[in-house]
Structure formats: C-alpha cells, structure tokens
Automatic annotation (TrEMBL):
PANTHER family: NITRATE_NITRITE RESPONSE REGULATOR PROTEIN NARP, TWO-COMPONENT RESPONSE REGULATOR. It comes from Fulvivirga kasyanovii. This is Response regulator transcription factor. Residues 147-212 form the HTH luxR-type domain. Keywords: DNA-binding, Phosphoprotein, Transcription, Transcription regulation.
Amino acid sequence: MNQTIKLALVDDHKLFRGGLRSLIESISDRYVVAFEADNGLDLQQKLDSQNPPDIILIDVNMPEMNGFETVEWLSQHFPNIRILVLSMIEKEETVVKMLKLGVKGYLCKDAEPSEFKEALSSVYSKGYYYTDFVTGKLIHSLKNDGVQSDFYDINEREREFLKLACSEMTYNQIADQMCLSPKTIDGYRMSLFEKFNIKSRVGLVLWAIKNGLIEY
C-alpha cells in the first residue's frame, strides 16, 4: 500500500486554497490535506509537532507573518518538513532568497496542473523541485557574484571555476576563460562534485548558495 503524504496549505486566499485542495485530491489518493492556514502565525497554531505534514505549500505575500518569516521559522523548528512555494511573484531576488532559506521548490501559481503534480512528486521523492524558471533566475543572479575564500580545501583555481560554473557559460567557455583544457575543467567539476556530494551543475550552484560559498 502506498504511504499517505500529508500536506498543509498556507495562503491567505481561501478561494485559491479551495481550488488547490480540489486539485490535490484529484491527483492521487496518496495526498491528504492535513490542514489549511491563513499565514505563518496561523500555521504555528495548527502544526502538530507529533504529527507534522510531509510537505507545506506556502505563498510569499501573507499578512501578519509572510512567507519568508514562516520559512525561516519552519527551518528552525521543523527542518524535516519540505516546503514548496506557490506564488505569483517571479522576482529574481524573491526566488533566490527563498532558496537560500531552504525551500525545496518554487512554483508559479499559474503553472499547469501537470507541472504541479510533478512538483509534488519530486519534492517528496527527490527532496527538491527546480524548474528551468527557477534555475535560470538563480544562475543569472549569481553570474557576477564572488566566492568566499576560506571554505573547505578548495584551491584558487577551483574557486575560480566554481564562480564561472554559477554563470551562464558552458564548460567549454569556462575552459577558454581559464585558459585550460576541457579535460582539466572536467577534473575541477568532478572534484567539486565529489567534495560536496553533488551530482549536477544546478545542484552545485544551489549547494554553493546554501553553504555561503556564493554571496547573493
């Protein structure tokens, strides 16, 4: 028997929550909406620490306690709950700030039902869901940022590679920029993947943000 996946909806628009609940219930019997909340304060009152939801779907703009404040509180008190943001806000700084706070995905409210279904499944099974929209915003915002110099045993060339890997350049372009062979660049890439236990370039960028290697 498939395990039940408990969800919580945090959004101050009751009509949207109702539509979202109906969509969730139509996707699969596995998903159960445990409760709904108007904002972060309401969420705090309704959360059962002995039986917390697996995933919280949350908006950014809410009265009394907004999405940023709520995610920060959840990260401190319920770090194992996976958070998927559903918002109409597409501003680069909002997306990146939410990712830095630890959300597992960011989806626009006008997304297709099929994409929402994929997001739910991915957040639960893989622990994250990042669309091209999110990674594009993320990488663009980091293309000119610097990297901290005192973290782990990353040497100067690896730090330079990491900075360029957080841009829109291809690996071959990075090799040209650093005056190195593609094989050497591949060596840097695999070295960082191994050090940070990362399997993709997007994962490397997100890991760099989360651990402060890249300053936003």
